[in-house]
Structure formats: structure tokens, C-alpha cells
# Entry
Amino acid sequence: MNIELSSGKNFSNVSEDVLRENFQLLKSGEDFLILDDSGSYIQCAVSEPGTLVFEYQDSTGHYSGSSAVSFERGEEIMLQYLKRDSSWKNNTDWVSDGGYEQESPSFSSERQGTSSDSSMGGEQKDEPLSIGGIFNTLKKTAKKEVKRAVEKKTSGIVKDVFRKFTK
# Structure
């Protein structure tokens, strides 16, 4: 598998140690990390301090995590994906592009109607899902994707201006 970071750094044939090292960079400036497996991938982006949002794509379609997860849980998801351990899908609920939710069996009864948010210290609190919260998460994700696209396709000057504008 390969890693791509928001800074443009790429790594091939990734080991667990390389993934852990690069995952930690999300806490110190990297905006996103993509773990690519020959056409299928999983990616995470920093949402709020201490939380990540996830997306993945495989042969069945494109899915987004229904709520932000802690860095700790995010690292677990990425390591399981790297090991090709299918239990990574059970660490959050997933919504397909078609709007159909793919609930995780191990969390669905505990988390139904709530959004789990963990700080870096490991505390966990459940908050009711709201249209505003979902909208804000989508807005942040869209902003990061636009930023990513602009950074890949523009010169350094335009990239710097865009960074100042989006901060």
C-alpha cells in the first residue's frame, strides 16, 4: 500500500511503523493522509482539533464516516486497513454517496442518534447528531478537498495566497 500526505509526500510499500510515523504528522500540520491499495483507498482529514473525518472507496462504492473520530480510533482504523483486516469498517458508521448508511454492528446500538467525539486525551462524549453538525462537517470536508485540488494544480504563489485566504 502507498501513503499520500497533504504536503505531497508519498511513500510506497508502507509498513506499520511508516504508517504510524506519518499518521502522527496529522497532529502537527498535515491536513490529510491517504492510504491507497491499488484502486481502493481510505483517507482521513483533520476535522476539529483532536478529531478526524474518514472516507473510503472500494469496488462497492464511495463512503464517508458519519461522524468524526478520535486520533486514537483513526490510527486503529488505518492500521487495520493496512493489515487488510476488515474489522476497520466497524470503528465508525459509514454513509455511501447514495445516502445509504452502512452501520457498524459493534457500535450501532450504542451510538444510534449520537456523534462520538474524543479529545486527544482519550475522553469520550456523545452528542446528538444535528443537521448543523453534519452540515459543518461536510463544509469542512469540502473546503479541505478544494484546498487539496488547488494545491495540486497551482503554482506556489497561488497556493500561498489560497492558504492565507482559507485560514
Remarks:
- The two ends are 32 Å apart (CA to CA).
